[in-house]
Design goal:
By secondary structure, the protein is an alpha/beta fold. Among the domains are: 65 residues, no CATH class; 231 residues, no CATH class. The strands form four sheets. Strands 3, 4, 5, 6, 7, 10, 11 and 12 form an eight-stranded mixed beta sheet that branches. A hairpin with a 2-residue loop joins strand 11 and strand 12. The protein binds zinc ion. The site of zinc ion has 8 residues, from helix 10. It comes from Coccomyxa viridis. InterPro entries: LCIB/C_CA (IPR040703). This is Limiting CO2-inducible protein B/C beta carbonyic anhydrase domain-containing protein. Pfam families: LCIB_C_CA.
Length: 469
Amino acid sequence: MQSMAESILQPRPHLCQPRLTIPYSSNVLPAKRRSLCISAQQSGTAPTKTENGVTQQQTGLQPLIGRQKVDMYAEQAYLTARTRRIAQHFPTAIGVDDFLNRLEVALFAYGFTGDNSIAMSNMCRDEITGILKTKLDIVFGSSFNTNGLGGVLTCGVTGVKAGLSHSPISAGSGKERYVFLSFPHISVDAMGTLGAISRPGRPGQSCACGALNAALADIKATGLKANCKRPGEHEPLDPEYSILKQRLARRIRHDGGTDADLANMDLVDITKIAERTILDDLEYLISQTITSPSQADYAVISGVQIHNWGQSFDNQSPNLEYIAPSTVYTVVAGERTYLDLNSIPQLTPRQIRVLSSSAASPESSQIDSNLDEVCGSAGDTTTLRSVEPPYSYSSKESRRAARKRAGIFAQLIEEENLQISNASPWPGGWQSRISAKTHKLESDNSCTAEASSNDSILGDSAAEDIFLA
Ligand SMILES: [Zn+2]
């Protein structure tokens, strides 16, 4: 079977870009290895047109590599190129495992561990954010989530207070410790397409973040003024989404933006605006819930979660996850200290592999031990490890294995000349035996009762108050 490294050395069009050759002439590849790179003319390889209109012949460094010797460098080069593509939009982006390990080191220095802190995670509701949630739960223990569409905070002080009240209490100092983590998200797929995300079992591509993408489109279509509603005002059938739109619109207006500026905004712009806005909202909620330095120490980490997956969920391109941290600080005994995670060295691939695999579930560990797993340095920026969703049924490996089995049985059906039919025809099987009468009357519905009550007694303004309460 073809290895990942072998396959990426073959001339697939989207991999034949000048960035792929850069590491071979830079610090990634030791000088003695450069002799393995010969010019395209020497190799007799036809020049390949790239997206920038530069041929690989023109770079003079067409890699012709003994695969058995330098596969590891091809993986590094590939991961470096993927990282540079992300860095065009998010210069601080590093691999998610690398980010969490650096963060753990930094917070440990200020007294925060998974044992003595509660993590307060805030992300979009999208299931693909669960990958980050699972990873940070491994580091900080099960987190209290305040998720909303696009990452918008709608839980209010009651929601935040609930999470804080679950914190461990240090035996010595009696202090509580909170780690607030807030990450709106975006997808930039392996080809660099903004917003495009492949999902397991779903053909084609969808969008991440769909809520931010839709909010940007709506604000562009209706203008800032229409979306700058009174704080807290929202649409009853769309509470989170309407609050998300008004928070974004108010922030754009606050930053001096106008309707004319909206035309040039793309998904990256609105994601960065969302990150700043949600951080502001989070800090305001913190100010309303933590009122005394003696109450607790806490850390605030805000950034953007970036899904950099293949164009198809289970094609050969590794699904990579990045975090672009923007604001990281601790408040210990009332004193705020900003932290620079880039000043902490990246972990080696072996360290990332060991830390990530040993903490994962048994199912994941089996996947992690698979030799096809991608885990390597991306230049001197970060270390990357391919991700799988935190459940094995939709992992790349399980889906490939299922297809392989299906192929075997399809062949057996043909070879053994079997007649196939639907084993469980619908309806008429066991489904008919478990059907039951309805559990409640249609009229027994609080929404129906509320709507009729609003219409007849309270009037429009009072109805609005109900939903604002
Ligand atoms: Zn989303």
